[in-house]
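User: Could you go from structure to sequence for me? I need the amino acid at each position, not a summary. Structure tokens:
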């Protein structure tokens, strides 16, 4: 029994000695985000004149694409999500007269800090979300661009067709 007590004492002794070492001070840092997110609509998605029976596409890096500047917390990450229509109603006709609209896998783009649709990240606005990042302190924003395709029928009623696109930005 004396031997077993001595073995246990030797096994416990190194642990007790290590507990008497020097302390190390560390720093804990936390950046809390969630300041306001502001939107500035710079350009509506505009198909201009559309011909009956002829599909028309607006590419996301052209002058007719929709463009929004989103400002938020510098360098914070965010999710971009769209709620998109599938039909555009004719606002000059009786209810029920619509024109189909669709969005391809490359119909949207976001770009950090600079308003230049020629760069940035292309994404599919019709599925899920896409992650983005706000610019630094001097320019804490990013730009979102959107194109799409309308497909008027050969007998499409004349008039102005308008719909609503909802852009939702959420901090990650």
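Assistant: Here is the amino acid at each position, in order:
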């Amino acid at each position: 029994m004396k031997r077993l007590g001595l073995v246990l004492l030797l096994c416990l002794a190194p642990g007790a000695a290590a507990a008497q070492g020097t302390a190390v001070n560390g720093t804990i840092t936390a950046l809390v985000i969630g300041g306001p997110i502001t939107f500035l609509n710079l350009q509506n998605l505009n198909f201009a004149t559309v011909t009956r029976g002829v599909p028309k596409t607006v590419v996301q890096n052209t002058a007719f694409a929709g463009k929004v500047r989103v400002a938020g917390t510098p360098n914070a990450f965010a999710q971009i999500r769209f709620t998109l229509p599938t039909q555009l109603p004719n606002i000059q006709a009786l209810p029920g007269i619509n024109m189909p609209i669709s969005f391809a896998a490359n119909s949207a783009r976001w770009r950090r800090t600079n308003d230049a649709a020629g760069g940035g990240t292309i994404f599919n606005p019709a599925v899920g979300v896409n992650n983005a990042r706000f610019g630094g302190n001097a320019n804490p924003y990013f730009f979102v661009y959107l194109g799409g395709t309308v497909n008027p029928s050969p007998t499409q009623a004349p008039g102005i067709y308008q719909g609503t696109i909802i852009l939702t930005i959420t901090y990650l």
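One structural detail worth keeping in mind: The chain has one helix and twelve strands.
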